[in-house]
């Protein structure tokens, strides 16, 4: 007879004496049945029958608890009929636990949990969990994941978006460890979070099987969240760190090692970011580090049910799996092991993914979220102004659209106001903007907070950097690699016009305040023509202030010049809030105030559209 969740919780508490081992932080976590000892036959090394257990995994949840989109204030919907959220994952996980046995299943995550929706933004900024008050709210992700009995979670790069203080407050609320073997204290190069955890599973009559879970995060944090981590934490390479810690996990007694790795499989670096270490290094980890059985992969937002990689040193096959982000899929690593000659050995291992759209939401999780959900729905539905016409971002990847110009105008206005009266006040201010969210729109008539927030879905802040005209041209040439080359007269297919596989929308910048054509008949590096400022050819030696988000200013996307450019101003408030404040102050969104139509796609001088 299988245990239900309530029985499992009681049993776990009753066997806390058999606590799991946790590396690097002196943590202890309850283990379902670690206290029982081996029988005499097993102790003498005689073969034990094969036993099965499952390690389930999620990644890149990005604040999704319910199957709800706070930007549209409606049930989540996409063209593929996917569904999202931990409430869905909870139903799937309970089904697996009932099938396999509650005491034969672990549930882990590979990072990026506390950023991505207005739900998580609300509890980071509006009613923050990082407060000295005794009445600090419980973070919705902590509440849901604790209830679902997660075993461990790796740190993702977006965990640092709200600062280390918010991350530590979140960590305090968890009943399981946040793992990060390569997240180090800058002052002593020691792990700032537990590197690993070991959990014991009682399988049959043999000794408890020890499952080691090692957590690794992305070195790019040092660039993308420089303002939050510089001088406080460092993030060495994934493979280099794994080579140090996997042997330590084995030496601590782990019979099986699973790595929760916030790093994709395929691209050496993501979207052109030139890091000291490969950003997407999970395959390299499996190939180069002996002693790993399975890797739960994150960061890339891809669905890869199973990838088999042969370790170059041992010849052993390592199983990798990445479930689709936002709780759309649940990975299951299905292990079969046997105890033979005094040790547990993996007999077989495979992975699969389960689809969230096949099950209903778990009412236990839905009910837990009632109060938080209501607060956030009320918050995002505040009316902040009106719009004369509907504005859509749908065509922004290939046309200069008013909605992108609105982002540029807001950023330029904020920087101009900040520099007014100072030594840089006379320099012209330009602004960088990218089409983050292809579904974003501002409706005609009433504009709500969620409409404006949906234009800027990331937690970026604003900076001002000085660039020359020549540097701005280089910047635009780099951005124009977004487009595939297309000969004059060739058919135009909007679906294949952009090179979004290698250059995602968020790394395609236009510059508000300049005029230019992008000739997509030309090769990358020779596409920007007719570059003007205020109707005149751009002076290569002229200086400009570029309003730019902190991700780009810190080197995200590897755009030329900007990271090394002189910083003349920076702000700690999210650009999203600047947009909301701008709309509130204006009262009416009128494209006549900001629409520029300053750039276009051409082929040999002829407009594509």
TrEMBL record:
Residues 54-302 form the Calcineurin-like phosphoesterase domain. The keyword Translocase does not apply. Keywords: Hydrolase, Nucleotide-binding, Signal. Residues 1-35 form the signal peptide. SUPFAM superfamilies: 5'-nucleotidase (syn. UDP-sugar hydrolase), C-terminal domain, Metallo-dependent phosphatases. InterPro entries: 5'-Nucleotdase_C (IPR008334), 5'-Nucleotdase_C_sf (IPR036907), 5'-Nucleotdase_CS (IPR006146), 5_nucleotidase/apyrase (IPR006179), Calcineurin-like_PHP (IPR004843), Metallo-depent_PP-like (IPR029052), TAT_signal (IPR006311). It comes from the Bacteria. Belongs to the 5'-nucleotidase family. This is Bifunctional metallophosphatase/5'-nucleotidase. It comes from Kitasatospora aburaviensis. The lineage of its organism: Bacteria, Bacillati, Actinomycetota, Actinomycetes, Kitasatosporales.
């Amino acid at each position: 007879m299988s245990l239900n969740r309530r029985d499992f919780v009681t049993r776990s508490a009753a066997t806390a004496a058999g606590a799991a081992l946790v590396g690097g932080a002196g943590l202890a976590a309850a283990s379902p049945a670690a206290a029982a000892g081996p029988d005499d036959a097993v102790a003498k090394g005689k073969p034990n029958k094969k036993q099965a257990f499952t390690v389930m995994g999620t990644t890149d949840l990005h604040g999704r608890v319910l199957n709800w989109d706070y930007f549209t204030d409606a049930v989540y919907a996409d063209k593929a009929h996917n569904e999202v959220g931990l409430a869905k994952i909870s139903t799937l996980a309970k089904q697996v636990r009932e099938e396999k046995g509650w005491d034969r299943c672990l549930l882990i995550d590979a990072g990026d949990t506390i950023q991505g929706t207005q739900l998580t933004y609300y509890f980071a900024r509006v009613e923050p969990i990082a407060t000295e008050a005794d009445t600090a709210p419980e973070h919705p992700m902590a509440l849901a994941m604790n209830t679902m009995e997660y075993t461990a979670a790796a740190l993702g790069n977006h965990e640092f978006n709200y600062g280390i203080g918010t991350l530590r407050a979140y960590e305090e609320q968890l009943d399981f460890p946040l793992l990060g073997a390569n997240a180090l204290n800058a002052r002593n190069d020691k792990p700032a979070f537990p590197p690993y955890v070991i959990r014991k599973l009682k399988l049959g009559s043999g000794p408890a099987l020890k499952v080691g879970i090692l957590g690794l995060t992305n070195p790019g944090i040092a660039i993308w969240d420089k303002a939050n981590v510089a001088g406080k934490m460092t993030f060495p390479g994934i493979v280099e760190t794994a080579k140090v810690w996997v042997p330590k996990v084995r030496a601590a007694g782990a019979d099986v090692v699973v790595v929760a790795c916030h790093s994709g499989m395929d691209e050496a670096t993501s979207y052109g970011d030139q890091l000291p270490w490969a950003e997407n290094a999970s395959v390299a980890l499996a190939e180069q580090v002996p002693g790993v059985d399975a890797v739960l992969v994150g960061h890339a937002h891809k669905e890869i049910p199973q990838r088999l990689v042969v370790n170059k040193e041992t010849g052993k096959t390592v199983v990798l799996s990445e479930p689709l982000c936002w709780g759309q899929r649940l990975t299951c690593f299905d292990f079969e092991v046997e105890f033979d000659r005094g040790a547990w050995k993996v007999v077989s291992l495979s992975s699969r993914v389960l689809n969230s759209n096949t099950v209903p939401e778990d009412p236990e999780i839905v009910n837990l979220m009632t109060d938080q959900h209501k607060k956030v729905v009320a918050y995002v539905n505040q009316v902040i102004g009106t719009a004369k016409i509907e504005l859509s971002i749908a065509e922004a990847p290939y046309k200069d659209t008013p909605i992108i110009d609105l982002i540029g105008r807001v950023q330029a206005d904020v920087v101009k106001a900040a520099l007014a009266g100072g030594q840089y006040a006379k320099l012209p201010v330009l602004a960088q903007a990218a089409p983050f969210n292809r579904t974003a729109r501002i409706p005609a008539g009433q504009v709500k907070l969620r409409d404006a927030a949906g234009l800027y879905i990331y937690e970026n802040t604003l900076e001002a950097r000085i660039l020359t005209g020549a540097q701005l041209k280089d910047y635009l040439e780099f951005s124009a690699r977004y487009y595939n080359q297309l000969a004059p007269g060739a058919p135009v297919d909007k679906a294949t016009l952009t090179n979004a596989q290698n250059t995602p929308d968020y790394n395609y910048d236009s510059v508000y305040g300049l005029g230019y054509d992008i000739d997509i008949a030309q090769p990358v590096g020779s596409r920007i023509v007719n570059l003007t400022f205020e109707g005149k050819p751009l002076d290569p030696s002229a200086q400009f202030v570029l309003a730019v988000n902190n991700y780009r200013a810190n080197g995200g996307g590897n755009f030329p010049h900007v990271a090394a450019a002189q910083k003349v101003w920076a702000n700690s408030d999210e650009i999203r809030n600047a947009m909301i404040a701008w709309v509130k102050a204006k009262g009416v969104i009128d494209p006549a105030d900001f629409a520029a139509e300053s750039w276009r796609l051409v082929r040999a001088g002829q407009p594509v559209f």
